[in-house]
Structure formats: C-alpha cells, structure tokens
Amino acid sequence: MTRRLAQVAKQVGVSEATVSRVLNGKPGVSRTTRESVLSALDVLGYERPTQLRGERARLVGLVLPELQNPIFPAFAEVIGGSLAQQGLTPVLCTQTKGGVSEADYVELLLQQQVSGVVFAGGLFAQADEPHDHYRRLADRRIPVVLINAPIEGLDFPCVSCDDAVAVERAWRHLVSLGHERIGLVLGPSDHVPSRRKLAAALAVAGALPADRVERSMFSLEGGRAAASRLLERGVTGIVCASDPLALGAVRAARRRGLAVPEDVSVVGFDDSAFMNCTDPPLTTVRQPIEAMGRAAVELLSTLIQGGAVPPGELLFEPELVVRGSTAKVRR
C-alpha cells in the first residue's frame, strides 16, 4: 500500500497524504486533484478502491509510431491538450525498435478499459501490414480515430492532410523556378500517404519516369540514400514525403559537392519543429497540425458520447512555406 501511495503521489505531483484522502473518499481535495489521482491509478495499473470503481477515468490511448520525427510530438501535444479539455486522459504509447508492438499496445489499452484510441501514424497507414488489432478494436466497439490514412474495410473516422494538394503545390513551386528534372522521395510502396503523393505527382507532371521516384524508410539516412540515387540521374529539384527525408536529401547533395539551393532545390513535408533553423532553412509543405489534432479529438469525443460523426475522411489543406532550400534552377 505504501509503495502504491508513493508511486501515485509521484505521478500526480502531490503528497501521499492527498492520495490517501482520495482513496478513502475523504473531503478536502479539489475535484481536479481527485480526478488526477484516479487517472494515475488507472495509468499505473492499480485497481481502484471498490467504492470508486464505477468512476473509472475516461482514458484515451494515443498511439504514435515514434518520437524521433518531430511531427509526432507536435501531434501528441495538440491531441493531449485537446483531450484534457474534453475531460479525457491521454495514455501515450510510442513504439520502439525491438520494443512493445502496436498490437501489444492495443491489448494493454483494452486491459485498461480505454474509452477510445487515436492513431497518428502507424501500421494502419501501410496497406500490406497486419491490421487484425484494429479489427479487434472495431469488434469491441471502441471508438477509434485515425490521422493521415484510412483503413480499407473499416469505417473508422479519419482526419488527413490533403496529399494531392501538398504535392501539387511543391511541384508547381519547383516548376515556377525553372526546374524540369524533378525527383520524388517517398515512403514504402504500401504506405498509403506516399501512394497518394505519387498519384498527385503523376497528375501534375503529366508523365513521370520511373527513375525519378525513389522510396525509403522515413529517416534522415534513408532520405540521403534515396536522394543520392536521384542526383546521380541529374535531377535539380527533389520533393520529399517528410522533413527528415528532405534533410537527408540536403546532406546527399552536399556529399556530392552540390550546393542547396544553388545546384539542387529540396522541398520537405510537415513543417515540423526547427525547419526554419536548418542550413539552409527548409522549404516545406506545412500540415495544419493544430486543426487536424483538434478535429480528431472532437470526432473521438462525439463517438465516446454515443453520437454520430460524418462518414468518410476529413481532408485538411496544407500550406507551402517557402524558405531557403529552393531557388531558380542554374542554367
């Protein structure tokens, strides 16, 4: 009991005496503190006292594929704050290599009797990956909201950045600067947002040779390798499916003795943290993270309360942010 009091007190940032008062149903504790203590019990996996079990806090799982890409902490901040405003407590689940899998996290969240789950990136965005754990959530009627890709065959509501608009704006920006040999660095072939970006590039370019498209894992190192292959083929402009991929492309250019943007122009996607502080500052397509995160929470809250939400996918329009990594093509 003493160990439990200490852990809960540390989690909430209150005294053990305050935790004890909450667990014993005594007065003198604010409603906010009381709810925080009860939420901490749920998060730490402790059973509530019998008289409090009917008041289980409304926990919501927030599942992210990683935290190294700054776009995901940005989504977590917006979604976590919006959940708190709705009286919901976020439980952050982040995957690591060799660590807990997404399916394992879903099992843990079900054990915690979560009221809903938000997925911001993950296996649902890859068409060829197993989706059984998502179907389990659907079978249990757990409200779920997805960010940036739907799952075929499951009618979970989805909030997405419009990939077609993003690529069109990046592509037309490079064309306006005189670039004709433009390459594309995308994620894996089964990655749904990357598929959409490729379709948009084909539409805006009219025709795109196969050797102008490279695929990679979403990392700086992957972007460098993919961009190196494009540079060998003489491209002067590169559109990337994420900011880390774009930073890898900048590194690839420099390793070949090329200057950015004088010799090669690079466009990213996301406008994640500090992209205005890179060298050069990165031209990128900004996802409306604030609006998307808040919309995802509104949808989830409506589902939790038993309401209906509009069918289909909500598409949010991105914004091209022009900085120093793009310039007129050198003749």
From TrEMBL:
The HTH lacI-type domain, residue ranges: 3-57
Which PROSITE patterns does UniProt cross-reference here? HTH_LACI_2
Query: What Gene3D superfamilies does UniProt report for this protein, alphabetically?
Result: 3.40.50.2300, lambda repressor-like DNA-binding domains
Please give the InterPro entries that the UniProt record associates with this protein: HTH_LacI, LacI/GalR-like_sensor, Lambda_DNA-bd_dom_sf, Peripla_BP_I
Keywords from UniProt, A to Z, are: DNA-binding, Transcription, Transcription regulation
For this protein, what is any one GO molecular function term? Answer: DNA binding
Which Pfam families is this protein grouped with?
A: LacI, Peripla_BP_3
SUPFAM superfamilies listed in its UniProt record: lambda repressor-like DNA-binding domains (SSF47413), Periplasmic binding protein-like I (SSF53822)
Q: Which PANTHER family match?
A: LACI-RELATED TRANSCRIPTIONAL REPRESSOR, LACTOSE OPERON REPRESSOR
Q: What is this protein called?
A: DNA-binding LacI/PurR family transcriptional regulator
